[in-house]
Every structure is written in structure tokens, then in C-alpha cells.
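Chain and backbone:
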Amino acid sequence: MRMALLYAQNGYAITCGQVISNILPCVVYLQNGGSVTEHCCNGVKAIFNAAVRTIVDLRTTCYCLKSAADKFKRINKDNAASLPGKCGLNVPYEISPSVNCASITM
């Protein structure tokens, strides 16, 4: 369902609202660690499957994730960095508060 929402944009860029909505099931893992739920991984996959269409979407996703980390306090940066791998994804940049989103390439 979430993937359908991301793809139902008719070519429009991904939004921070969509990124945050899809990352919400991961907040407990991002704050506390432990196991990653299937619901969390489905959201992460939806984000990055939509984001790989264009460099603009990829960078927007990066900026949105950084913004979300500011909104959700106590995010553990190591948990954030490990999340894509735990969901079986290879993301072209490190999920980190220090990542330079403008330098991301495809």
C-alpha cells in the first residue's frame, strides 16, 4: 500500500511527508535498536525504491531523512546507518546526520 502511494505521484518528486510516513514504523528501532520489523523494512524499501528514479528524489530523500532525525529525538546514528542493510538494501550514501545530501550521485 505504501509503495502504491509513493508511485501514485504521476512522476512528481517524492515528498518529505511520504518519507516520514514510511519511516515511522522504524522509530522504535532507530531509537532503541533490537530487531527490525517487516513493517519497518517495507517502509524503507518503499522510500528507496521510489527515490532511485532520479537524483532529485535521491537527494530529497536524504534531506527528508535528516529532517526526520531532528524531529524524532534520541535517534541512534548507528541504528540509522545500519537500517538499510538490515532491510536488505544497498543505499548509495550513509544514513547519517553528517551526510552531504547535495553531493549524492547515482
Summary: The chain is about 60% helix and 0% strand.
